[in-house]
Amino acid sequence: DPALAVRGLTKRYGDTVALEEVDLAVDDGEFVAVVGPSGCGKSTLLRVLTGLEERFEGRAAVDGVDVRDGGSDGVGMVFQEPRLLAWADVRENVAIGLPGGVDRDDPAAHDRVDDLIETVGLDGFAGHRPGELSGGMAQRVSLARGLAYEPEVLLLDEPFSALDQLTKYEQQDNLLDVWRERGATVALVTHDVEEAAYLADRVVVLGGQPGTVEAVVNVEADRP
Length: 224
Ligand code: ADP
Ligand code: ADP
What we know:
Residues 4-224 form the ABC transporter domain. GO terms for molecular function: ATP binding; ATP hydrolysis activity. This is ABC transporter ATP-binding protein. Keywords: ATP-binding, Nucleotide-binding, Transport. By secondary structure, this protein is α/β, with parallel strands linked by helices. It is built from 6 helices and 10 strands, in the order E-E-E-H-E-E-E-H-H-H-E-H-E-H-E-E. The protein has helices spanning 42-50, 90-95, 107-119, 135-148, 165-182, 193-199; strands at residues 4-13, 16-26, 31-35, 57-62, 65-66, 75-78, 153-157, 185-190, 202-205, 214-218. Strands 6-7-8-3-9-10 form a 6-stranded mixed beta sheet, with helices on both faces. A 4-stranded antiparallel beta sheet has the order 2-1-4-5, with helices on one face. Helix 5 (165-182) links the parallel strand 7 (153-157) and strand 8. Helix 3 crosses helix 4. One adenosine-5'-diphosphate (ADP) is lined by residues 169, 172-173, 194-195, 198.
């Protein structure tokens, strides 16, 4: 089974057709970027795959498990809006992402959280609360929380949109490092075609005519 399998996916909100007859298959370990103009249904596609959308037509499966049957618990999602806990500090917000069963009092768990905080360039801010962070910093906390889970399938919705250019490049390269080390499957949604071409094995374009999700570029050689 492919890691992500979408067949004939149509999603409507009232009269709005957010997705129409979308087919997409993503192989195990593949890094796919989904691009397309604002409103073409990119976020909706990820929400369906995460199991956050109850009603849609067609099929969507993660790791061979239909999302209607609960999907795979190996899927992790980083939302475009950071959705941090306001009363918890950065360390706690990242630790929330640790998989169930991990003993949070275990020094190894602490190390892992601290490593992730360093990876996203926030060492020194571990004790800060979200209200004390910039939008870009909050987005990096959200990314660290998503990575803490170590999902087999990582779904990322515009994870770099609030970052300045330099930080964005750093975090893009960090993501590639994590992806290579872990061999995870990644589906990243972005409106930034350059970012997609830089990061992904395959860039999929969503939108335009119904059913026209297509692989347009293979850009593997573009990566460092
Ligand atoms: P993208 O992520 O590509 O910008 P979205 O998936 O957010 O696109 O949205 C696709 C379409 O569905 C848009 O027309 C949007 O307005 C509509 N839409 C998304 N979520 C909702 C919702 N909860 N209720 C109503 N319409 C929605
Ligand atoms: P070129 O690769 O043609 O010289 P740029 O350097 O402007 O073009 O980069 C194009 C895209 O590649 C950027 O928008 C960015 O997404 C990505 N990119 C370039 N350099 C880096 C880098 N060092 N780290 C991460 N991403 C990079």
